[in-house]
Design a protein that fits this description.
With about 260 residues, the protein is mainly alpha-helical. The protein has eleven helices and no strands.
Length: about 260
């Protein structure tokens, strides 16, 4: 299944271009905004790159979720699910292949944008050091979990639920504290942020870039939450899959 998705991706240069296009555009726009703020704010002089890092890391989460959802939706659009599941393919193998191709697509999208950030703004997100690996893994795993739930909902309720694949992750953006600290949020909202792995990742990122301190407790909390998220997302997809198969929906879904 991974090779199937890889051949589809490799054989279509517009798909590859689209993967890198949006992260690159965001880096350019936010990079110039950051540059402007750095020239007019002592805070941004002190912590140049906070916004750029936030943009790049947020895109890891977004691309991770979209990589799973879109690959699955393409199977539905082409009415290919029935063909896949008359083969010996098992549902968990499909999940593994969706996550693998999501990882490949995310790397293809993010790496050029990160290199462009260095070329244009002399800022390297890789200056975050080893914690960057943990941030990347936590964000993409959260994206996978969300993507699996969205794919399961589309499988169960049809393409009418397709828009959820695009909007679900943005509904969590305000609570993920991407561009501002959790402390900025109203006190009654702050407890909600603690159940999102992304909020711990972005707090950890700011601790490194602004305070020069690595906070391992944030990384461990995000990792523990992601274990729950990934198990929940996988079980949710499998439950929706079993229900769809029982109702005979798999052969009837498509455009």
């Amino acid at each position: 299944m991974v090779m199937r998705y890889w051949y589809l991706l490799r054989g279509s240069w517009p798909r590859i271009l689209e993967l890198a296009y949006w992260p690159t555009m965001q880096v350019v726009l936010w990079g110039f905004l950051t540059l402007y703020l750095a020239q007019n704010s002592s805070l941004f002089v002190q912590a140049f790159g906070v916004l750029l890092s936030a943009v790049l890391l947020w895109d890891v989460l977004f691309r991770g979720q979209l990589g799973v959802s879109m690959s699955f939706l393409e199977e539905m659009w082409s009415r290919n699910l029935g063909h896949l599941f008359v083969s010996p393919l098992r549902p968990y193998e499909l999940l593994a292949s969706l996550m693998t191709i999501s990882l490949i697509k995310t790397v293809i999208g993010i790496v050029p944008a990160s290199l462009l950030a260095y070329a244009l703004f002399d800022f390297s997100v890789y200056s975050l050091g080893l914690p960057l690996v943990g941030f990347f893994i936590n964000l993409i795993v959260m994206g996978w979990a969300l993507g699996l739930v969205m794919a399961g909902l589309v499988l169960r309720y049809g393409l009418g639920a397709e828009s959820l694949a695009w909007v679900a992750v943005f509904a969590l953006a305000p609570l993920s504290a991407i561009y501002y600290p959790v402390a900025v949020l109203p006190p009654w909202v702050q407890p909600l942020t603690f159940i999102l792995p992304a909020s711990h990742v972005f707090e950890g990122m700011r601790a490194i870039l602004i305070d020069g301190v690595y906070r391992p407790e944030l990384m461990w909390t995000a990792s523990a939450l992601n274990v729950v998220y990934l198990i929940g997302g996988s079980l949710g997809f499998l439950a929706f899959f079993r229900r769809a198969r029982t109702l005979g929906l798999i052969l009837n879904l498509g455009e």
